[in-house]
Amino acid sequence: MPPPFANTSSHQSATTEPSADNSPALIRLRADMANARLASEIVRYATGQDASLLGPTRGTPAQATARQLAMYLTHVGFGMSLQRTAAAFGRDRSTIAHACHKIEDTRENDRLDLLLDALETCISRMPVPDPTVTDQLEATWALDLAA
User: Fold this and answer.
1) What is residue 57's three-state secondary structure?
2) pLDDT tens digits for 30-40?
3) Which of 21, 23, 30, 100 is the most exposed place for a label (fewest CB within 10 A)?
4) CATH class of residue range 24-127
5) Domain coordinates of the chain in residue numbers?
6) Residue 67 in contact with residue 40, Cβ under 8 Å?
7) Model's pTM, two decimal places?
């Protein structure tokens, strides 16, 4: 799979090519990848997995299952489309669909259903990232120090 949003055209000049750092598609992909990382870390915590779930290889069966859970939570908890979730994980859309179906099938188990509900709630309640928060905190601390 080629890298997302790769420029395959050599005919665009530097003056007409949009800035890669500020393109809406790249900004959205970065946000989606942050969502995937967050879901993966939550799943790692909940399942006790110690290896990254975002690696290019399948890993152990337990890691693969945990990654499928992270894919499911990214899709359902953040309300992302299968295509966006696939791009965020660097996988094919059919891989995400398979993961979601596999996790949905486990919901018949009451214990797993409760766990999935708790993880979905955790993810759906996450605040939207706000890069200005650190500036606001620093300004507040500066006022406290001046007082």
Assistant:
1) coil
2) 999 999 999 99
3) 21
4) mainly alpha
5) 24-127
6) yes
7) 0.75
